[in-house]
Design goal:
The protein has 137 residues and is α+β, with helices and mostly antiparallel strands. It has one domain (2-120). It contains four helices and four strands. A four-stranded mixed sheet has the order 1-2-4-3. It is globular, with a radius of gyration of 18 Å. Mean pLDDT is 82; it is low at 118-135.
């Protein structure tokens, strides 16, 4: 099992990324899930899921009181499936932080879409002006 902690300073959140490598990680995962106070019955469910060598998925857990989010990634059968799982869990992280910050769904959708829409960056004056062909060309 690989574990990496990342601080999100603007919101003072901690993101804990847990990558499950094989079924031997089932017992060690309890310590990580306890960091965000996941209920015991849910921990047992996750351990069972890992021991069955489940693949191609992930889970996101949050504890707003502790300002912690834990993302668990299970082994994937291909790089493409892994990218899909990571992107899916990333959306959960963004949505949970937006929820904590009391940004409603419409605003959260705007921020999430803006993040992935390169054209919208030309409207933001804080970005460097780059020489580019006009969009009308």
């Amino acid at each position: 099992m690989k574990v990496k902690s990342i601080n999100i300073p603007i919101y003072d959140f901690s993101l804990i990324l847990v990558e499950i490598e094989n079924k031997d990680d089932a017992d060690a995962v309890e310590k990580q899930l306890s960091r965000v106070k996941v209920p015991k019955d849910e921990i047992e469910s996750v351990k069972d899921y890992i021991s069955k060598e489940s693949k191609n998925g992930g889970n996101t857990y949050r504890n707003f009181d502790l300002k912690k989010i834990l993302v668990m990634l299970y082994p994937c059968e291909s790089d493409r499936k892994r990218r899909n799982v990571i992107n899916h869990e990333k959306r959960h992280v963004v949505d949970r932080i937006m929820q904590w910050a009391s940004i409603d769904d419409i605003e959260a959708a705007f921020y999430r879409d803006w993040e992935t829409d390169r054209k919208s960056t030309r409207l933001n004056s804080s970005h460097l002006k780059l020489s580019r062909m006009p969009s009308s060309a």
